[in-house]
Structures are given as structure tokens and as C-alpha cells.
Amino acid sequence: MTYTGTALLAMVVELIVNYNVIRNAYYQRDPRAAKSYRGLILSMMAFFIFDAFWGVLYEKQLLTLVFTDTVMYFIAMAATVFFTTQYVICYLGVQNAFTKVLKYTGWVFIGFMTVSLVLNFFIQAMFWFDAAGNYHAGQFRYVALALQVLLFLSIAVAVLTTGARKGRSSRRRHLAIGIYAITMMVMVILQVIYPLMPMYSIGCLLGSCILHTFVVEDLKEDRRMELEKLLQRERERDRELGSARHLAYTDQLTGVKNTHAYVEAEAQLNRRIADEELQELGVIVFDVNNLKKTNDSKGHEAGDQLIVTACRMICRRFKHSPVFRIGGDEFVALLEGEDYQNREELLSEFDRIAEVNQENGKAVVASGLATFRPGEDHTYRKIFERADRRMYERKVLLKASGPV
Fold first, then answer.
1. Residue numbers of the domain that contains 374
2. Is this structure's pTM higher than 0.70?
């Protein structure tokens, strides 16, 4: 039971240490290093399971089951070797002769193990059990172990040699891979010396802990940097969308909101009225006097300047409210909150300034105010029409009291 207990303990520790790697979707997608690392951990978990069952089945002498389990044991072992080669290639992130050879070596080992296990059904190539139920290793079993020793030795020598010439961060990665390869190599050798001891399971556990300590932290850092890049791109896209929206909804001459923004605001107000969410709203319609006369006598540049001046008058007085230019010389302000509470005072002051400007030959703007009547105004348009009528009444009064 010591054999089974060791394998089970290794499986439990592996699950605890690498639980996040197994469950986290990040390791199931890109980058490839994360995916291959997850594959390595899962293949080790499978190996622990088959290794644990092997101890129980062998002790109970259930030869048919132990034979099947032994085949699965070797398949899981081959998978750990394969994913090790793929992970080293992806993690180091370099393309050279060594990584190319390593890539094909992983596939060759998988192929060798597959052929050997198939042959084992006909000849005693990998393993067999004698009449007394004792396990015996075949010649191909030792060949497989020798190949693993050579493979792990090659990985250790290559990464430690090249890592010595790298920068600090890259050297740390190479060192982690090197220590992992040396650990696995030593435990494979011990497995040859003690074939009935779970040395390979111990090696997988120690090796994965080494990788987790050094490598997963690097993967977390890579993930953090990746998320920062995604957030940065998201912020840039938001700024671009905000800029595009600002351009699309801004009147180019005056800088206030344009007719597109006004149509959207009207639709929102209609929804609020329909849902009985709107409690208070003031609508002021403005019209710039003498625009046609200015255009005809002084030119359109002077007319544009008159519109800009009039817009500034409106925005300075109703600075807490959105202002829209809805026509050549027409503006609308939607009053809520503070401006709505002070609407009479604000409009009275605005009208007084218009009268003073008329006396001094400056920009004159007629205005008309209407407020929302709950239960009576079922659409925004009704409020606007009342405000528009009052604006024209005011316009008539201004024309009657001064030059047009």
C-alpha cells in the first residue's frame, strides 16, 4: 500500500498546487505555453491515477486489470514526456535547431511508446507477468527509460547553457526548466534501479512543483501584462468612440449639441414620459434676431459670428443645461435640476440682456419657456410647441420695441 499511498499523495498535492491551472480558462486557450503547461499537468494527474491503481491491483494480483492499467500507465508517461517537449519549446519562445529537434523528439517518443505497447500484446516487449504474478520489465521498457534520461539530460544541458547568456528574466526561466529536467532525469534513473517503487510519480510531483514555483508566476505576470494591454486597447477604443460620437453629435460652428443629439434626447424624453419617470422639465426655445439681415448686409462670416455670439449668451446663462442648435438660428435648452428650479429668474435675466443688446445694437435672442405638465403632456413635442409659440410672441415684442 506504500506504493499506492505515495501516488495518491502526489495526486492530491498536484491537484492542490495546480488547481487554478486545471480549472482556469486562461490555460485552456492561448498563449500556447499556458495550454501545453496545462496538458503537462493533466497528463501527470492521469499518470498518478494509473500509478495508484497499479499498486492496489498488483497487490491483489488482479492480473488482467493490472495489465490494462500498466498499458495506461505507459501511455500517461509518454504524454508527460510529449507535453514536456512542447512546453519547453513554447515557454522558451525561441526557434533554433535544438527546439526543432525537441519538437520532433516528442512525437518520436509517442510513436515509439505506441508501437511498443501494441507489440507487447504479441511479444514481451515492454513488460509481462510470470505465472506467479510477478511483474517483469521488457527490453523496450529500458529503452524507453533510457530515451527519457537522454531527453531530459539534453534539455537540461541545452537550457542551462543557453540560459547563462540570457538576461535575468530569461535566465530564470531557463534555470527552472533545467532544474525540472534534472529532477526528472534522476527519478527516471531511480525508477530503473527500483522498478517497483513509484519514483516516476515522485519525480513528476517534484518537477511540477518546481515549474509551478518559477513558471506559473511568470505566466501570471504574462497574463497581467496581457490584461493591461487589453485594458489599454479598450481605453483607446473608448476614446476613439467618444471622439467619433462627440464629432457626430456636436455642432461644428458653435460647439454645442447638434440636431442628431437633439433627436436622440427627444427620444429619451419620450421614453421617460411614457414610463412616468419624468417629474420636471423646462424647455426654452431661442431664435436669433436679424440673422438674415446680417448675412445680406455684412456677409455670412458676420452671420456666423452672430450665431456664435448668441450661443455664448445662452450657454453662459443656462450653464447647467444641455444646449442644442436645431436650425440655422434656432437653439433649445432642456432645463432640469438647478436650472429648472431657477428658470424664471434665469429667463428674466436673459431677456433683460437681450433688451439691453437691442438698444446697443448687439446680438438679440428671443426666447420662450414651457414646462412639463404631468398627465397632460404625453410627448415631448407638446412642451416644445408651447415654448416655440412663446418664443415667437417674444420675438414680436422685441421687433415692435426696436429696429429689425
1. 259-401
2. no
